[in-house]
Amino acid sequence: MSGAVDDGAAAAAAAAAAAAGAAGAAGAGGAGAAGLDARVLVVMGVSGSGKSTVAAMVAEQVGWEFAEGDAMHPPANVDKMHAGTPLTDEDRWPWLDVVAAWIRGHLDAGTNGVVTCSALKRSYRDVLRAPGVVFVHVAGDGALIEQRMSQRSGHFMPTSLLKSQLATLEPPQPDEAHVTIAADRTPEAESAEVVERLGLVTIPRA
Ligand SMILES: Nc1ncnc2c1ncn2[C@@H]1O[C@H](COP(=O)(O)OP(=O)(O)OP(=O)(O)O)[C@@H](O)[C@H]1O
Ligand SMILES: O=C(O)[C@H](O)[C@@H](O)[C@H](O)[C@H](O)CO
């Protein structure tokens, strides 16, 4: 599968333009210098797709702040998932509010950032959406993701919940500022594609 899958042209162009604003202002992390707004990437997708891996890599490459949306769940949500029960909308709204507050805090402070959040439904993304927010959908097929989840250790999410994650997923639509990244390559290739397609500026390695 090629990396650039199924983005609406308008969405991809909007995403690139939005993120390029940030790159031009602040490839190395600050956003205020050129008077442009900060940008936040929300790396989304089902559990096990590789969101955390790709997001951390992109954040490091461009020098933006990184946050793990899984760490923002109320403990009751984590307990529920750990026990093998899918979250409901009611479980997710308070969590999405916390992620949205992180996003808004960064946009308001003029600090670019990258945050992971499954953001499976459009209505969830509506909570997170704001000018300057670009969704990066890490998308892969169930068999690949199942294999990755079953090999992962020390994570609260059981592989048994993948089915409900996939059933709940509403991929971003053409009118949503987003890019879709195919999950079937190396993390390095996937993160490089995010940087390239969004026109981000990488910082020199120390
Ligand atoms: N491109 C990749 N190629 C091979 N393995 C990968 C790749 N990306 C991630 N992995 C591995 O797959 C597993 C799932 O990745 P990761 O934890 O980043 O996914 P996630 O979407 O953040 O999951 P969750 O939402 O459940 O936390 C991990 O063990 C990770 O090391
Ligand atoms: O909406 C959800 O069901 C949750 O956010 C999950 O997707 C997890 O937090 C995560 O992906 C677990 O590993």
Automatic annotation (TrEMBL):
Group of enzyme by EC: transferase
Pathway it works in: Carbohydrate acid metabolism
UniProt-listed Pfam families: AAA_33
Keyword Kinase among record annotations: yes
Entries under CDD domains matching the protein: GntK
Classification via InterPro entries: P-loop_NTPase, Therm_gnt_kin
Catalytic activity of the protein: D-gluconate + ATP = 6-phospho-D-gluconate + ADP + H(+)
EC number(s) per entry: 2.7.1.12
Alphabetical keyword list: ATP-binding, Kinase, Nucleotide-binding, Transferase
Entry's family note: Belongs to the gluconokinase GntK/GntV family.
NCBIfam families: therm_gnt_kin
Designated name of the protein: Gluconokinase
Organism: Curtobacterium aurantiacum
